[in-house]
Structures are given as structure tokens and as C-alpha cells.
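#struct-help
A.M.: can someone run this one for me? Single chain, 433 residues.
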Amino acid sequence: MMLDAFWVLLTRFVQRGANLLVLMMLARALTPVELGFYGYVVSTSLVLTVAFDLGLRQGAAAALGKAPERAGPLTSQLVLLWCGLAALASSAAWAMMAWGGLAEAGPAAMALAVLAIAPMLLVRMGQGIFLGTGELRRLNQSELVSRAILLVLTLLLWWRDLLDLDAALALMALSQLASAAYVLVALRRGLAWRHFGEWSAAGELLRQGWGFFGAILLMILSGRIGVWAVGWLASPAETGSYFAVLRLAEMLVEVATAVGVVVFSRGVRAGRDREAAVASAGVARLVTFVMACAALAAGAMAGPVLTVVMGDGFGHAAGALRWMLGGAVASCLVMILYPALSSRGHARSGVWLFGAAVAVNGLLALALVPPLGLDGAAMAFAGGQATAALAILFVYRRSCGLDWRELLLPRRQDFAWIGKLLRRRSGGLPRAA
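D.P.: on it. C-alpha cells below:
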């Protein structure tokens, strides 16, 4: 599992590096208000695609893990379900974008924001097939396609001084369309007209997905509710600053999310609960420890980091970044242990633990944003993520019978896989003549 996680991590580092470069260019090309609108679109799009996915990403993986011979019917019915869900998600997106004030940016911005929803939803749902079959390479490539296109075209428009809000939203939509095309091509082997009438496969997907739906939606909300809270309680400019520091802190979380993908994919196909639980705990404590070290280093240099990455206008957000980095470390633990639990039939436990995180984040935001502004929103984020981490530790400990040390304290053998990897790589190098 460690070696699989390493290669997924390496891929995600490339992706997040691309995201960071895009964010750097957007922070310099857009006004704070425009960056706030862009952040609202990105956050709302993510929440809507998770909501209208109905848990089918994880549900498809779970269904395939139990019956790999039904890949054809399950894939075909998943694409058929997407056709209806995409129309509903796009309609909801238009309403949410108008409610969030994006209409002030003009009809083109509204249309471009909505255009990205359907392909984004297809990518998310289609990745469930890759998870169920263990094709993590295809899953990684489906995300690399969109990142590569977004980075190259953003760089080109920024260099030509053509990067504005409409252009940024157009590039987001184009990158998602390209990724969706890749997913459709990758799924073509499982698509057949004869499978579109097998409604039982659709019913199985929906039954499996329903067990994941509430928890996954609340998990996304626990991290993104702050964008809406700042937009409601503060100004669009402060929303832009919040989105910027959130994206920086989330780079740590997305590393853990990448590992969680591996944990979930292996979990739905694993046979022994105890062995899988111990292995997942080892990965979680190691990754969380490494991310905590990274957070301490970034927090110590928060001011210079923000100035270099985002520009001179973001130095005031150093305190907020430190709070968010603390919350991100707590979230790392959750993003690995929850996939481990959900892959073994405990998905519904996420409803109350992520529900608690959403409630804490929302209530703290209501109390702290009016007097403290951006710092208050960051404190609310950290409080919500800490709540989720404490809850997942309690649930995992009770469900899997592990003690606190096994969940939190790295061990010497956790680092042994690095030597194994280096020996494998050096053994494969050609010898000099």
C-alpha cells in the first residue's frame, strides 16, 4: 500500500504544482473581487458535483469490488445516470451562481461557470469505475489532463495579458471538458447498447452510492462552507483572500486525499478487515506526521510564502494561513482514515462526524467572522477540521480495535518502505559496462 500511495502522491504533487502556478497567475491578473468570484465558482462547483454525484463515485467502486464481472452493465448505467444528473446539476449551478452574486460579473461568466459542471460530474462519477477496478493510473491521468490544459493555457493568456475572470472561467470549463473526454474514451470498453436496459445495475449503483452520499457531501462542506460564510458575512475581496489561503493550505490535504484514494481502492477489494485497518493506520500516521512538519515550516514563513505565491497584497493573511495549516493537518488524518472505514462498510459513520465538523465550522464562522474577519474564518475552519479528526479517531479506534499510539505516533517500520523503494529503483538501473 505504501508503494502504491507513493506513486499516487508523486502524481498529485505534479497536479498541485500546476494548481499552485495557476493560482499565482490568477492572483496577479484578477482583482481581489474577481478572485473572490472565481473562488466562489470553484467551491460551489465542487459542492454541486459531489451533491449530484449521489455517492456514485464510491458506490460504483464498491459495486465493482463485489462483482467485477458486471463491469459492462455498471459502467453503462453509470453513464446513463450521469445524463440525467448532469442536467439537474447544471440547473442548480445557475441558481447558485446567481444567488452568490456572479450575475454582477455578466452573463458570460454565468454561462462559463455552469458549462463546467456537467463534465466535472462525469469525471467524478467515471473515476468510480477506475477505483473499483484498481486502475489508479487512469484515475491519475484523468486529473492530469485537466491540470495540463489549465496550466498551459493560463500561462499563455497571462503572458499575453489576456487573463481576466471570463477567460479564467472559460479555461476551467475547457479543462474539465478535456478530462471528461478522456474518461469517456477510457470507459468505452464497458459501454454497450445491450447494457443500457439493465436497470438492476442502476439500482445497485444507487443503493451502494446512498451509503456514501451524506457523508461525502458533508465532508466537502466541512472544508468549503467557509467560502460561503465569508461571502455572506464579509466582502468579495475578503472572499478572494480566504479562497487564496484555503487553496494553499489544501495542498497538504490533497496529498492525504491522494493516499485516501489508494486506501479506498484497496479496501473495497481487500479480504481481511484487521490487516487492512492496521495498514491504513500506518499510512495515516506517517502522512499526517510528514504534513505536520510541512505545515510547521510553511507557518513559520507564512508572510513571505504569501508574498511570493500570491503577491504583495496578501501579506495580511499570514495569521489566517497559520490557522488553516493547523486545520489542514487535522484534515489529513481524516482524509485517510475515513476512506479506510467507508471501504469496509462504515460509510454512514461519516454523516455524524462530518456533520459535527460542518456545524462547528459554521457556528464559529458566525461568531468570529464579524469581529475578526479573515482570521476568524480561518479559526472556524481549523475548529471544524479538529472536530472531524477527533471524531474519526474515536470511531476508528472503536471499530478496528487500535489504540491511540497506533493511530497517531509514527514507527520506525513506517519509513522502511522508502528504503525498499530505493533498493527496487537502484536494482533496476543498468550497470556501467
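A.M.: thanks! Confidence is low (pLDDT under 50) at residues 425-433.
D.P.: also worth noting: The CA atoms of residues 424 and 430 lie 12 Å apart.
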